[in-house]
Design brief:
The protein contains 11 helices and 9 strands. It is α/β, with parallel strands linked by helices.
C-alpha cells in the first residue's frame, strides 16, 4: 500500500527525500527477512536520548505498523535509560507480536541491553555491542553537579568503611565526612535497584530466550550485574562474549548483504540525528516520528 506522502508535491518530496530513502531501505530489509522492521534510534551523544516515558507514545505508533501476531525485528540503538520504561516497551511488544528479534547494529547498552534480553534472538555483527546492566544512581556532587555512580559502589564503599573499623577498632578520621553523609534510604534504594535489574533479566530470559532453563537465566542475570566482572558500565560485550554467556546470538558477517543494508540504515540515522540535533528517531516503512 502506498504511503500517503508519495503523493506530495515535488518540493515536499525533495525536503523529505532522505526519510523516503530510509523507509525504502526498511522495506527492502523486510522483503529480505520476511519480518516487520521497527527502528528505535537514539543519538547517544544527545543529553535527552535515554529511554524514558516520552518513548511510550511513539513506540506504540510504530507497533501499529505490525499486525497482531506478526514476527518483528527491532533495530535498537540506545545508551540505556529508565528500566521501568524499558520493561513497559517490552510488555507492549510482547503482547502484540509472535516472534521478536532485536538487531544491535552498533550499541544497545544498559536498559537497552535489557530490552534485548527479552527477545527470542539478538542479531549482532563486528560493530555490535551490549553492556552490563548494573544500575546507575544519579546524585549531586559537592559542587551541585549531577553525577552518576554505580549502585553497587555506594554499598561497597560503606562495606570498606565497616572493614576499616573492624580492623582498627575505631573509625579513621578520613572517613568522618563520608559517614556523616550516609543516607540509609539511598543505600536501601541501591540494594533494591540491583535486585530490580537482576529480576528483570532473569524474568524475561526465563520467559523467552532461555525458556525452560531457569538456572541459566539466573546465571546470565547475575553475570550482567557483576561489577567485578564488568568494572565499567560502558564495557563492551560483543557477540562472542554474549553467546558464550548463554544468550541466543545470530552473528551476521559485516560483508553479508543484509548487514550492509542494516549498516547503511544505521549511518543514515546517525547523520540525520547529528545534522538535525535530534535525540531520537522512531521509524517504520510508513511511520516517521522524532524528538
Amino acid at each position: 500500500m502506498a504511503d500517503a506522502t508519495d503523493f506530495g508535491s515535488p518540493l515536499y518530496q525533495a525536503m523529505h527525500s532522505r526519510r523516503h530513502q530510509r523507509q525504502e531501505l526498511i522495506r527492502k530489509i523486510e522483503e529480505s527477512t520476511g519480518r516487520r522492521l521497527l527502528v528505535y534510534y537514539a543519538n547517544v551523544n544527545h543529553h535527552d536520548a535515554e529511554i524514558s516515558p516520552l518513548d511510550v507514545a511513539p513506540f506504540q505508533d510504530l507497533l501499529y505498523n505490525c499486525t497482531v501476531g506478526c514476527d518483528l525485528d527491532l533495530l535498537l540503538q540506545s545508551p540505556g535509560g529508565d528500566i521501568d520504561t524499558a520493561e513497559k516497551l517490552v510488555y507492549m511488544t510482547r503482547q502484540r507480536v509472535k516472534g521478536f528479534r532485536v538487531i544491535v547494529v552498533e550499541r544497545a547498552k544498559s536498559a537497552a541491553t535489557m530490552i534485548a534480553l527479552a527477545a527470542d534472538k539478538i542479531l549482532m555483527s563486528s560493530t555490535s555491542e551490549l553492556g552490563p546492566i548494573d544500575p546507575q544512581i544519579t546524585i549531586f556532587s559537592a559542587d551541585g553537579q549531577q553525577v552518576r555512580r554505580p549502585a553497587r559502589s555506594f554499598l561497597d564503599g560503606l562495606e570498606l568503611v565497616k572493614k576499616s573499623v573492624e580492623k582498627d577498632g575505631s573509625l579513621n578520621a578520613a572517613y568522618y565526612p563520608i559517614v556523616s553523609q550516609v543516607d540509609p534510604a539511598l543505600l536501601d534504594f541501591c540494594e533494591k535497584a540491583i535486585q530490580r535489574s537482576a529480576q528483570f533479566a532473569e524474568k524475561w530470559l526465563n520467559k523467552h530466550m532461555l525458556a525452560g532453563r531457569p538456572e541459566k537465566a539466573k546465571e546470565v542475570a547475575r553475570r550482567l550485574i557483576d561489577v567485578e566482572q564488568y568494572r565499567s558500565h560502558r564495557m563492551v560485550i560483543d557477540s562472542e562474549e554474549a553467546r558464550n554467556m548463554g544468550l541466543d546470538i545470530e552473528y551476521i558477517h559485516a560483508d553479508q548483504p543484509l548487514w550492509r543494508q542494516l549498516w547503511s540504515l544505521h549511518i543514515a540515522y546517525q547523520m540525520e540525528c547529528v545534522e538535525q540535533g535530534l535525540a531520537n528517531v522512531y521509524e517504520t516503512s510508513s511511520i516517521s516520528l522524532r524528538h
